[in-house]
Amino acid sequence: MSTEVTAPMSGNIYEISVAVGDDVKAEDELLILEAMKMENPIYAPVDGKVTEIKVAVDDAVEANAVLIILD
Amino acid sequence: MARKQTPLRPYFEKMSDIGKELSEAEVKRGAKNLEAVAEQEALIKAEETRVHEAGIPAERVRSRGSMTIYDRLDYMVDAGTWQPLHSLYNPTENEEGCTGVVSGMGKIEGRWAVIIGFDNKVMAGAWIAGQAENILMITDLAKRLNIPLVWLTNCSGVKLMEQETVYAGRRSSGAPFFRHAELNKLGIPILNAIYGTNPAGGGYQGISPTILLAHEGANIAVGGAGIVGGMNPKGEIDLEGARALIEGTKSFHGKTPGRAETHFDATAYFREVHETEEGVLDGIKDYMRMMPAFDAAMFRVAEPAQPKYPLEDINLILPANQKRPYDAMQILARLMDNSEFMEYRPDYGPEVFTGIAKMDGFPVAVIGNNQGIIADYPDYADGEYPGVGGKHYRQGLIKQSEFVTLCGRDNLPIIWLQDTTGIDVGDAAEEAELLALGQSLVYSIEQTDIPMMCVILRKGQAAAHYIMCGPQANNNNAFTLGTPLTEICVMHGETAAAASYARRLVKEDDEGRDIQPVVDKMNQMIDDYRAKSEPAYGAKMGFVDEIVSLSRLRGYMEAFAGANYQNPKSITPVHQMLLPRAIRG
Lengths: 71, 585
Hints:
- Chain A is mainly beta.
- Chain A is built from no helices and eight strands.
- Chain A is globular.
- Chain B is 37% helix and 18% strand.
- The mean pLDDT of chain B is 95.
- Chain A binds chain B through residues 8-9, 25-29, 35-41, 43, and chain B through 23-26, 29, 321, 323-325, 372-373, 375, 385-386, 388.
């Protein structure tokens, strides 16, 4: 079952901490979303494997945009 | 058989649990943070060692049969209770590397006292620049907490080569004598252990406390014997004058005035004279047992308990990267008894938390900044921007004012945990009355006559540093602590550089000139801001009263709570407290 990790707010992708194929555990840091001058970490909601990264560093994203897909 | 219990048990015995164990991922992520914390701790430690070793070597003092100030403190203060303050304070960058006094809080014979002593390694305890302010700050603490002040006097008087830095002025080295009189007037006892030669300023330092105990070699006097006769004042020293001075000094065999044979045998100012230095400190201990102090059971609302989670975890949780958010409840869970908290209005003003907790079994209030983005808040922004933890908005300011006022009613001492970047700005914020509500919080604090302590966990910026009971709250703030991650400045260096040079950049650019020199100045300003926002700089300048490792914060909080309840000026019967009922509803 796949899980979509979405942006909780609009902002810019500051850093991506994982690569496609990585196994991650719940609460692992996936990427950093810069918004309101803050570096907001986005964590894995569940254990899984990173199957797709839909953003790149410096991308501007809107709230609720899908960032990463875990399987 | 009699049945006994702590008061208002249904509210205080068990509060809501907060916090959770750190996950593997959090521990892993925190590794770099540990390095950043350790780096700052090492810098602070090196500074503390430098101050500790200021003046002549300790061994030279000991070889004369004397104890150093640190030996005296070690002997007198109950083991494990010493909480130093102002260790790095040296705002005028004295060549001595310190202000010549060592101060803090500690227990003596089980009772809390504010303790200060002259560093007898540094010019035999001379008055040097910054020292009077240091003394005034530490005596403020005794006044605020209503606990005894203990002096270890060993004061050679004015450093004559720099008299203009200490002698005159409203807050000069004479002001502490009035402060001692004020403490006595307020019923706060001052115990004085007197060592060495204490002429003039040292004499008043000796005579102004409440109880005087002396070492047999000590003296206190209006003036010393250093001013020798035989000089013919001409307005300058010529060779003839210098020769006369040499002869006068060689032939001077008078005794130092104000010795024990005068002030014990004749005037009877000294209550006790002891043959040994330790004996004087034993005398202080005897008097400390006479000091007013309630048994802790009088005010405790539960058995003391350590937090459920390790204090050291805070080094992993509190990000050194000032742009990173964190869960403030995870910090609180590692500071408060049994990791419990009774939160006041959690759904209102979510950028701050306010509530009651227990510290060493005593009830305390806590106020701090939550962190992270807060969606759909503040409501007055109408969705134009989200709330950011660390900033203050309308609801949060109202909540803090309400809470502080209720704490005053319930006599709950407040622990403030600051990590703030300021108060919201812009037209919407002005219409939401944030300017007035900030000052309203200042008024609420001033109107509330209870001790408060403040920890600048990370950022203390803009007016928010003031309104969250920063050290500027002179009548309430007992002391302010910094941490290895503290950064105190009016705003970030980048913001300040932009504000200062934006117009200049436009002008240079419009006129076709190279903007690089302006950019260089901006970066110079940013570097300067960074250097002057660091923990050690803040401690040196008195922005905070001490920089404390995150794992040692609770020790200061226990001291604060214990000292607050030792002999409070005002008492609210626990069963008549309003806040616990207001929280439960």
